[in-house]
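During the first year of the project, the team set up a workflow for recording each protein of interest as an amino acid sequence followed immediately by a discrete structure-token representation. This format lets reviewers and collaborators read both layers of information side by side without switching files. As required by the reporting guidelines, we include two representative entries from the current panel. The first entry is reproduced here exactly as it appears in our internal archive.
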Amino acid sequence: MPSYKAPLRDTRFLMNEVFDFESHYKTLPNGEEATPDMVEAILSEMAKLCENTVAPLYQSGDEEGCRLENGQVFTPKGYPEAYNEFVAGGWQGLSHPVEYGGQGLPMSLGLIKHEMLGTANWSFAMYPGLSLGAMNTIQMHGTDEQKETYLTKLTEGTWAGTMCLTEPQCGTDLGQVKTKAEPQDGGAYKITGTKIFISSGDHDLTENIVHIVLARLPDAPAGTRGISLFIVPKYLPGQIGEDNGVSCGALEKKMGIKASATCVMNFDQATGFLIGPPNQGLECMFTFMNSARVGTAIQGVAHAERAYQASLPYAKERRSMRALSGKKDPEQVADALIHHGDVRRMLLKQKAYAEGGRAMAYFTAMYADHMIAGMLENDQKKYDKWDSELGFLTPILKGFLTEKGLEAANEAMQVFGGHGYIKEHGIEQIARDARIATLYEGTTGIQALDLLGRKVLLTSRGKCVRSFSRNLVDFGRQNLKDARLRPYAWKLLKIAAEWNYLTTRIMLAATKDRDIVSTASYDYLMYSGYAMMAYFWALQAATARDKLENGGNEPAEFYKAKLATAEFYFDRLLPAAKGHADAALKPTRSTMQMNAEHFSFDYE
């Protein structure tokens, strides 16, 4: 089983040399304590926890899985102890308010922490990760009393949180939610219904679990306008261990992330409390969902990194045939796999997606910092601005990076050949675990519709694309005269123009044929992902070039490797964007013309 090593050099390169997080933190009301020494201590200590405690449970947790006994879910051996160590270090409240027991540091540090934790062991990271969404929702929409009651315990990590959306009859279409909320004397509600696919719905890591539940009030309007949001704890505060009508009915039997408890949750007249205004639960829940989607985007980075860390040493050690350009290891019976061009293609693809995706995620984390700053400063205009910017980036990161994380895991299996398909080397687990990332928090198709239909066409009429693509134009103009960076500059200028042209063409076509929003959305999202990653690889290349000439924190070989990977991305991966652009503009007829009854003539 491959071990995990935190990619601290790449993290420091992005934080210190590409994005200048030190200056960024000085602009934030909660950034004063995020000094270089503090940031370095956080990175180093989290790396130790992940490498020494969390990562060793990755394979054993998968083999053992969770179990349900007498209504209680038990996590695999070692998980409670690892979670207690995580809590003792104060990691859960790293980026949450000091008044509720947190450390009050910028959200970006929490996301970077989550990347390390998730790469080490995504199943384990799911437990504290789901709590973060609950914490953000209560912080944004809860009353002072709710914050004091629930946020303090969640920040400590002694309580955990979940989000309960999906029901047997509905997934993405939440307008079909049937769970009921009946008002009671004293302001409480009785919640009745069944939720499925609830990650961390029940476990033995904390003394209580706080469920954030979508439900309907008795006279609520139909559809999404009639959904409210409720806090429904497993045990009522002050009544730990006493039944509150919340129970786990079953554990889902899953393809991957088996050490993460995915539960069928039953609410039988459970006592709950309204959070946010009545019938505006979906709007409040989006706080939770956006937090979860950014976290899921990081899963794509995590699996690409995990796959790369596994396949790289194997490619250096495993020997097969001779390189086409001549013997590379003449003293050996055959050359190492890494000397074969196609194996290098697969390794570089994994490296490009892991490091390019990490740059995208860290940049997005800075947007999240600004959004939180608006909230802390009670500046609604500032909050709305950055929330809008973040809303555009989120579906691209979630959709594109999880697809590429899965692709990287599959490439790792190809590097291993048949050895990747058996359990011994752990590659098949990475592939199984990566598969879910493209599904939960909205499938890739749902992210694509959210991006193109809601964010680009409906909400901004293409303004969000014009806004972000200015980054590409600025880079192009600034570096077009630099012979070493001109290839990147020229391509970014072309991509910026093509991205906006593609947006305008679809917008115009949609006025006559609304189906194009659906038929084009996946290709549009993938194009957007390739375009965005190209910008961040160009940034890394420019930084690496500067550090090679003027000196940096890393050895010259590190920066040369960055330049080589950037060149590979632009030469070998970015061309796929053109195919997505072409496909997105094709008429809907080829997709929509066949009668539904004619998809098969052999079975009903």
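The second entry, processed by the same pipeline in the following quarter, appears below.
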Amino acid sequence: MANASMEEFEALLNESFEMDTPEEGSVVKGKVLAIEAGQAIIDVGYKMEGRVDLKEFANPGEAPEIAVGDEVEVYLRAAENARGEAVISREMARREEAWDRLEKAYADDQRVEGAIFGRVKGGFTVDLGGAVAFLPGSQVDVRPVRDAGPLMGLKQPFQILKMDRRRGNIVVSRRAILEESRAEQRAEVIGNLSEGQTVEGVVKNITEYGAFVDLGGVDGLLHVTDMAWRRVNHPSEILTIGETIKVQVIKINKETHRISLGMKQLQEDPWDLVAAKYPLGSVHQGRVTNITDYGAFVELEAGVEGLVHVSEMSWTKKNVHPGKIVSTSQEVDVMVLEIDGAKRRVSLGLKQTQRNPWEVFAETHPEGTEVEGEVKNITEFGLFIGLEGDIDGMVHLSDLSWDERGEDAIQNYRKGDMVSAVVSEVDVEKERISLSIKALGGDKFAEAVGGVKRGSIVTVEVTAIEDGGIEVEYEGMKSFIRRSDLSRDRAEQRPERFSVGDKVDVRVTNVDSKTRRLGLSIKAREIAEEKEAVEQYGSSDSGASLGDILGAALKSGD
């Protein structure tokens, strides 16, 4: 009997040795024997039991699901501890199981399910059914997420971007899933759209250059130039976020999935009637909508705008910024100068609605009219005088004074001086007005010598005796008779034989209106008298002496 018992014991011992004992560091199956003090006591077989905290059986944020009799997989960390119990972990078993599953999903490029359960620097932690992954902030959504609260704890799909089992790193993305489903949705919506189609959309976002309109899962761009036929400075003038609008699909780019939309295309094009409504030369009232360096845009009606070029803004203000002549929103009268239907351009004129101030001046100030104005500018060739109608007239150096050189006379004037002048010429085409200051009192020389011609005999008064001749005066005009012209007789060519105040008959040898001088000569008068006497009383060849002839002439003169 004893022998039999020994044999049985040996057989049992051998049997126990032959049985595979579980390897430490592997996942084994066990049965829940009891639940006490927040722990589950699990029999992992081979006469080994271990304890696992109940929280290891729970998903983040959920209650543990475990009951006596349940079969579970646990990770055997050590076969026996100081208390003779197996050291086991449900969490580590789940992790090993999860890593195997995730590596397969990663290799097959498949989505995995998980739940965001915590926030860490730069992103969030995600439980992928036992393995913890990192979700970067940029991978949470297509657009930046301000509040991730509603996403926490939700079971949802993720895409594995990167994993390293040795280091225990997994990086996942929620955005990749959203983009994929969004791309599918976009493709479906775009597939149902066609160019020229009218659709409804909701204004999603407004920028300076336009608005993004949601067409039901796909966004289209409504450019600011396609919102209305008229000029729109900013889309917010017409649209508000959240507003439902009707738009026309202008263009669909199949490759980039970009959709261009238009609103004005659903309205009548005002340009179809422009040529008939705004004939050339007609005058209309418009509103200044925009001012640039080169001119001002004037709206004639909604959608029809014309440009008043800076050169057509004012008759007189030539080098002035358009903003100094008109202001935005100002109502102005303009004339239609040109229409280019193909380029949708209207050229307008502002100055054409007012009369040319040079024409007006020419009508109201004929030549010889006296005017008064302020010296606006002094240049090397004359003075510029401000006149009525915001125009200038010019007094040339040569028109400043009868007596002084222009260069000297101009020194008498200062900017801001009020001066009088006479209009001497108005050239409307060249926009020039010539004035004369010296002509104010009339032309004394012309008046004095009005009836005097070359060869005339006039009486002058001696005003000064000089070595080279005598100074004389005729009707207030001074002249000088040189010594050689004082007599035909050389012995009589002495200035001292004359006295100041003497009256002398002289012959006019020259009338120079430029230098305003009379050429006078006593000698020429004597020669002319002799010639006349000879013609009347016979020639000197007939034997009569000159004295006889002159005597006869003098007697007949008595």
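For the second entry, the following points were noted during internal review. The first helix runs from residue 2 to 18. The chain has a mean pLDDT of 78. Both points are flagged for discussion at the upcoming steering committee meeting.
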